[in-house]
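wait is this the right file?? whatever heres the structure
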C-alpha cells in the first residue's frame, strides 16, 4: 500500500514518530515529487503572520499547502523536529526526491549532455552532487532582523542557540532563489523598528542592501498579513507567473499605487457610495460611520482589505469583516511608515 503524504503525517503524528525519526527521512516521506523547498525564518515577530496563514480558507488551506504544494524545510513554529535537527533542516542540503532519483540514475556516467553533469566536465560525480545540494529555495522571512552589535553581549533573536537571526538570514538569503518578506515587520521593520528601535531592527530589503546582496524580493506586509495575500502570491510564484510589484515592493494587484487602490476608495463610507447625502460620521469608537475624525488612515493606505475582508467562512468566499466595518479605524498597517508614521492610531475624544 502506498501512503499519501497526508496519511503519513496523520500516522506519524498519532504514533509520535516525528520526534524520533531523522528529519531528513520525515521530509523525504512528506515531500511531493518536485515540491519546491521553502525555508521560513521567524525573526522579531509575534508569530501573528504564521497564525494568520493557518487560517487560510478562501483560496486553499494550510494543510494543502504543506502537504501538496511545498516542501517546508524549516519553520520554527510548525516544524516537527527540534533543536539541532531542525536547524539541519534549514541549513542542510535537500535536493527533492525526483532529483535524487534521477541523479542516482546518472551517477558516475560519462558523456555529453548529461542532465546532472552540473559542472559540465563530462561526468556525473560527487562534485555534481554537491552542486545539486546547493539548489535554491524560497526563503520566507517573518519578523524584522535585529542588528549584530559586537559591543553588545546579547544576541537578539537566537535561532538554535548558536545562530543569530542576522547570521541565519545572511547565510540563507545568499542561496535563496527568491525571498518573500511576510508581514510589515519583515518588509519594512514594523513595530520592532519603531522609535527608539533598541535592537537596530531592519526589514529584509534594508538588510539586503546592508549586506550587499541582490535577490528577487516580494513584500507582503500587514500586521498581520492577510492569509490570502500570501497564498495567492505563493501560488503565482509556484506557477512560474510574474508577480508585478508596486513602488513599495508589494504585489500590485493586492496593494498598488493608484488612488483607486486606497483603502479609503473602497470603503463603504467613501462619499461616492452615499449619493445625495454625506456619509455618516462616527463620533466615538463603536459608532457606525466614517472614522476619519477618530484617526482612520484609509486615505494614506493602499490595500484591498475592504473588498477581500478577513476571516473567510469557506472556499471561494471573501471574509466576513474588516477594521472599519468592525468600527475601528484603519491604522495603515501595510505601509512602510507603520507604526511611527501612522500614530496616533486613534484621535478625537
Ligand atoms: S472610515 Fe476611513 S477609509 Fe472609510 S471613508 Fe472614512 S476615512 Fe475613508
Ligand atoms: S484595514 Fe488598514 S489596519 Fe486594517 S488590516 Fe487593512 S491595512 Fe491594516
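ok assuming it is, sequence goes like this
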Amino acid at each position: 500500500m502506498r501512503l499519501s503524504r497526508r496519511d503519513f503525517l496523520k500516522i506519524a503524528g498519532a504514533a509520535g514518530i516525528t520526534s524520533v525519526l531523522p528529519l531528513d527521512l520525515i521530509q523525504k516521506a512528506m515531500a511531493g515529487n518536485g515540491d519546491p523547498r521553502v525555508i521560513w525564518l521567524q525573526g522579531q515577530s509575534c508569530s501573528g503572520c504564521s497564525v494568520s496563514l493557518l487560517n487560510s480558507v478562501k483560496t486553499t488551506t494550510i494543510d494543502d499547502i504543506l502537504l501538496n504544494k511545498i516542501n517546508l524545510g524549516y519553520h520554527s513554529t510548525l516544524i516537527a523536529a527540534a533543536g539541532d535537527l531542525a536547524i539541519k533542516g534549514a541549513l542542510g542540503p535537500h535536493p527533492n526526491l525526483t532529483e535524487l532519483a534521477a541523479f542516482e540514475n546518472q551517477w558516475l556516467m560519462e558523456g555529453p549532455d548529461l542532465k546532472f553533469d552540473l559542472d559540465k566536465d563530462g561526468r556525473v560525480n560527487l562534485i555534481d552532487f554537491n552542486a545539486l545540494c546547493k539548489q535554491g529555495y524560497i526563503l520566507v522571512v517573518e519578523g524584522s532582523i535585529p542588528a549584530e552589535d559586537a559591543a553588545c553581549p546579547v544576541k537578539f533573536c537566537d535561532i538554535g542557540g548558536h545562530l543569530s537571526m542576522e547570521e541565519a538570514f545572511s547565510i540563507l538569503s545568499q542561496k535563496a532563489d527568491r525571498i518573500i518578506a511576510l508581514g510589515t515587520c519583515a518588509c519594512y521593520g514594523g513595530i520592532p523598528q519603531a522609535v527608539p528601535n533598541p535592537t537596530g531592527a531592519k526589514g529584509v530589503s534594508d538588510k539586503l542592501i546592508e549586506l550587499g546582496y541582490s535577490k528577487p524580493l516580494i513584500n507582503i506586509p500587514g500586521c498581520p498579513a492577510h492569509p490570502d495575500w500570501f497564498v495567492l502570491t505563493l501560488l503565482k510564484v509556484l506557477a512560474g507567473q510574474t508577480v508585478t510589484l508596486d513602488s513599495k515592493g508589494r504585489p500590485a494587484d493586492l496593494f498598488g499605487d493608484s488612488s483607486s487602490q486606497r483603502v479609503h476608495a473602497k470603503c463603504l463610507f467613501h462619499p461616492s457610495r452615499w449619493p445625495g447625502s454625506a456619509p455618516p460620521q462616527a463620533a466615538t469608537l463603536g459608532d457606525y460611520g466614517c472614522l476619519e475624525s477618530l484617526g482612520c488612515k484609509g486615505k494614506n493606505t493602499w490595500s484591498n482589505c475592504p473588498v477581500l475582508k478577513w476571516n473567510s467562512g469557506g472556499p471561494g468566499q471573501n471574509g466576513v469583516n474588516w477594521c472599519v466595518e468592525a468600527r475601528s479605524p484603519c491604522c495603515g498597517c501595510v505601509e512602510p511608515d507603520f507604526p511611527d508614521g501612522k500614530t496616533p492610531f486613534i484621535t478625537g475624544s
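The chain is about 30% helix and 5% strand. so i think its the right one actually
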